[in-house]
Amino acid sequence: MHILLTGGTGLIGRQLCRHWLAQGHRLTVWSRRPEDVAKICGAQVRGVARLEEIAEPVDAVVNLAGAPIADRPWSHKRKKLLWSSRITLTEALLAWLERSEHKPGVLISGSAVGWYGDGGAHRPPK
Q1: What is the mean pLDDT of residues 95-112?
Q2: Is the four-CA dihedral 63, 49, 27, 95 of positive or negative sign?
Q3: How many CB atoms lie within 10 A of CB 105?
Q4: Residue 124 covered by a domain
Q5: Helices in the chain by DSSP H: which ranges?
Q6: Which residues are within 8 A (CB) of 60 and not within 5 positions of it... i.e. 6 or more apart?
Q7: I need a surface site. Which of 18, 36, 73, 112 has the fewest CB within 10 A?
Q8: pLDDT tens figures, 38-87
Q9: Cβ distance 111 to 66 under 8 Å?
């Protein structure tokens, strides 16, 4: 399976790269620093700066991209970076997928380090 991963050099992404490589999958990582991808994710992983560099069909897309949120104060400049690295990037990814001739079978997108499970009987406040 050919997997396109954004956020592949991050905390979760690099672990997914190792896991999927061990399973024999082909990986492409869309990264702001594609030259670092092979060093961080593995020599077999291809890093691309632009989605248009991907010529072969993608079977699955996992979107985990986003600048870290907890390491600095949220200045106006920082908020713009956080927005761009998540929202703008996801919009570009979706536009690319719409233009793609071969649609992937699955798209998974996440933007957090936390997890909110089933609240069971607890209801959110109104």
Answers
A1: 93
A2: positive
A3: 10
A4: no
A5: 11-22, 34-41, 76-83, 89-99
A6: 1, 2, 3, 4, 104, 105, 106, 107, 108
A7: 73
A8: 999 999 999 999 999 999 999 999 999 988 888 888 888 988 888 888 88
A9: yes
pLDDT of residue 71: 83
**Does residue 12 form part of some domain?**
yes
53 lies in some domain: yes
Q: Specify if 114 maps to a domain.
A: no
Q: Which residues contact 65 (CB under 8 A, 6 or more apart)?
A: 6, 7, 10, 30, 85, 86, 89, 90
Question: Is the pLDDT reported for residue 122 higher than 80?
Answer: no
Q: Could you give the number of structural domains in the chain?
A: 1
CATH code of the domain covering residue 24: 3.40.50.720
> The domain containing residue 52 runs over which residues?
2-109
User: Which one-letter amino acid corresponds to residue 93?
Assistant: L
